[in-house]
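Exercise 7.
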Amino acid sequence: MEVALLSFSSSLSPLCHNRTLTLSPKLSKSPNHPRLLTIRSAVSRSKKEETVETVKSHLENCHLLAAINYKGLTVKQFQDLRRTLPDTTKLVVAKNTLVIKAIEGTKWEALKPCMKGMNAWLFVQTDEIPSAIKPYRSFQKERKLEDNDFAGAVFEGKFYAPDNFKALETMPTRAEVYAKMLGALQSPAINLVSTLQAPAIEVIMVLKAYVKKLEDESNAA
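Solution. The predicted structure, written as tokens, is:
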């Protein structure tokens, strides 16, 4: 901002007549400047709200949410990691406090035990859990990032600590579940009861497959 001051007369010198003086005031760089603090506060609040909304949007079609300890990772390593991930996964860096705010009152609250340290968040938006986790495991092994392990994850409302990740990484594929469950539906009742005791997602997957099988048979008839 510039302010022009016009001097119409001067008792000091005639050269001062019609002189134009231009002033360029500067905002104080002091952190105590109230206007500067207000602007910074508004920007900071806006960014935080945007981050919370981003997390919420990624959770809409999420099957698994995992925390990864990213302390020490470089920007280039993050870029390389993102390139290895399939389209069905999203990697987001966000403060624990903002993620807690986004998951409050949802099944993802079970993730709170790993809300410490520096976390990156892996949103898996497919029911093929092992194939979604594998790219990071491979990246971690290739780059020798033993300290940058999973801090925890939530799947079907249940919290999985790092020691329990083997259960997630060895889950059967959709094709394997279909074969197992469809076979069980055609087996004696005792096998069907055993099958229905499997995790809910497996039961849902086989029922969908069974419905599709009936539809295909009906269309072929």
